[in-house]
Amino acid sequence: MDAALTVVDEHGIDALTLAAVAQRTGVATPSLYKHVAGLGELKTLIAARVMGDMTRHFTAAVLGRSGDDAVRALLDTYRDVVRRHPARYAAVPLDPLHDPALARPGDELFDVVLATLRGYGLTGSAAVHAARCLRAVAHGFSSLEAGGGFGLPEDLDQTWNQLIAAVLTTLRPVLRPWDDEATVAGAQAAMGSSAWVVSHYAAVLGFILVALALLDLRDRAAAPATA
C-alpha cells in the first residue's frame, strides 16, 4: 500500500498501475495478485486509506472544540490535507458513500462532520445540507489552490479566512426553534410554532429599532452645534 501511495504522490492516480507498484517494490507484477484482485481493488483500497487518514486528522482537529472553533479547525485541516497530498486526495471518488467498498470509511468521515455541526443544533436533513456546504467550500477552494487556480497576487490565507467567516455566519442563526428546514412538512411545522412567530417578530422589531437609531443619528448630525 505504501508503494502504491508513493506512486500516486509522485505521478498522480492516473499513473497508478500494478506494473508501477511492482517496479517500486522490486517484485514481479503477477506477485501483486496475491494481495489484490486487480487495479480497481487497489484504487479502492487507496481511497479507503485516504478517507481513514482524513477521519483521523479531522477527529484530532475538532477534539475538545465546539461551535465556530471546531468548524474552523475542521476546514483548516481539510485544506491542509489537500495541500500536503493533492494527488492522494484526488484518488477519493466524489461520491464514495454509494460505493459498497467505501461506504464504511465514508460514513465514518461524514460522522465527524455531523458531530461537529451538532454544536449549532443542526440535526437530520438540516445537518446534511450544512455538511454539504462545508464540503463544497473546503473541496472547491482546496482543489483550486492545489491546481494553481488562483493566479492573482492577493494573499490566499486572507481569502480563506473571509470564506470561513462567511460560512460560520450561515451556521449560527440567532434562534433555531425547529429541526427540519428542508421539507414542506418541516416548514409548515416551523411556521406553525410559537417559537417561529416570536423569533420573526423579534427580528422585525430589531430592524425597526436599528432604523430608528440611524434616523436619530442622522438628525443629530444635521442639527446645528450649540455652545
List the SSEs and their pairings.
Layout: H1 2-11, H2 18-25, H3 39-62, H4 67-84, H5 86-90, H6 103-117, H7 124-146, H8 156-171, H9 184-191, H10 194-222
Pfam families: TetR_C_33, TetR_N
Transmembrane segments: 195-215
GO molecular function: DNA binding
Explained architecture:
The protein is mainly α and 227 residues long. It contains ten helices and no strands. It folds into two domains: 43-176, Tetracycline Repressor, domain 2 (Orthogonal Bundle); 181-226. Helix 3 runs parallel beside helix 6 (103-117) and helix 7 (124-146) packs antiparallel against helix 8 (156-171). The radius of gyration is 25 Å and the shape is elongated. The mean pLDDT is 85.
State the order of secondary-structure elements, H for helix, E for strand: HHHHHHHHHH
Biggest beta-sheet profile? none
The name of the CATH topology of the largest domain is Tetracycline Repressor, domain 2
Which structural class fits the helix and strand makeup? mainly alpha
Supply the CATH architecture of the largest domain. Orthogonal Bundle
Rounded to the nearest angstrom, the distance between the terminal CA atoms is 83 Å
| Number of structural units classed as domains | 2
Helix content: 55-70%
Coarse shape: elongated
What are its keywords?
mainly alpha, 2 domains, 227 residues, 69% helix, 10 helices, single chain, Tetracycline Repressor, domain 2
Concise structural overview:
The protein is mostly helical and 227 residues long.
